[in-house]
Amino acid sequence: MNRSDFANGNGTTATALPPDAVERVTLEARKEGLFAGLTSGLASAVIGSRLFGFKRNMTLFCGVLSGALAGYMFTQAFRDTAMIQLRTEEARLLSLPQNTAEKKPDSEANSF
Prior knowledge:
Elements: H1 21-50, H2 56-95, H3 98-102, H4 106-109
Helix pairs in contact: 1-2
């Protein structure tokens, strides 16, 4: 999936989601992807130097490359997952009858 799957041409969502929902999801996915990329880069650099015996330059290259790739892939996965959750919640809310969402529980409606 790409960004055009979730937004129309002018960057706004074509559904009843809050206006900033896509931006919040994207920002949160970027934060989580950055953290995942940093940790995977560090782990791969340590593994490369200790287990494979890489020299300094190769270890740095290994850490940066794997961190960037993992960060990108994790960001895409987190964003896609969050967008699917948003769409599912939106579909659930739209499927509810209008008066069910606004109706008070029976215990509150009958109290004097």
